[in-house]
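CHAIN AND CONFORMATION:

***
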Amino acid sequence: MTTGRIEVGPTGRTVAANVKRLRESQGLTLRGLSAALKERGRPLSADAVNKIENGAAAPERGVRRVDVDDLMALAVVLDVPVITLLLPESVRGPVELTGEGEVNGTLAWRWAQGRVPLKYPEGADEGTRRKLLAMYLMKATPDGVGWDQTTQEGQRAALEVFKAWSDEGGTDGQSVD
């Protein structure tokens, strides 16, 4: 088996930059963050944290990719939601999303927050878009948590879809799973 250079994609570079930015803003050293991670049951050496941070700007110094368990532990220790590590700190300008490419920064954040789909089918009319939004909001929310109706957009979509479903006598066989 051959091993090659570890490629860090756009989301990995964003995570690297955000870990460094948040660590420094909280006055943590590499060793301090390492110790906090160890206390939380996810031991990463200071060198490993440094290599994670190198993924943003200095891959020639050695990088370490972040797996999902690292990501969750970093978010817990840095006391931020996981999406704060995954997306740029500003919504200004485009954001490059792994698997999608460039999208508007505000849209990327709203999508990551579970508020809107990343995109709608081309040519979808307003009624279809509202129905898809309502279905997306339901899919984006785990059982036991009310889905997002905090935006006017979400409220309108919910009212329209629920009214249509009740007028039709149910969901018309459509599932949100």
